[in-house]
Specification:
mainly alpha; single chain
């Protein structure tokens, strides 16, 4: 990562929204993940403010683009799809 670049929450094993709940076996739509997934949206909004469709599309992009998948799944398989589904559930409920 470039010097000074901000890392997405949860991509460093910190338990942020990119990872929270995933290892614990919680469904991405589980309401107990609400606070963790909610922290991801403001991080995204630092660069732009997506509406519901765009925010869900961002999660889909992470899954479809092998560069994102390789980066985010480098520690363990699965967090990309999990984040996409969790953020999609949050978008449906809150955006």
């Amino acid at each position: 990562m470039a010097a000074g670049a901000e890392q997405a929450p949860g991509t460093d094993g910190s338990g942020g929204p990119g990872n929270t709940g995933y290892p614990a076996g919680l469904a991405p739509s589980d309401p107990r993940l609400g606070a963790a997934v909610a922290r991801y949206y403001p991080w995204v909004c630092a660069g732009w403010t997506p509406d519901r469709a765009a925010y869900k599309g961002l999660g889909e992009l992470y899954v479809q683009d092998s560069r994102f998948t390789a980066f985010y799944n480098s520690e363990a398989p699965g967090p990309v799809a999990y984040l996409a589904e969790a953020s999609g559930s949050r978008a449906e409920a809150n955006l």
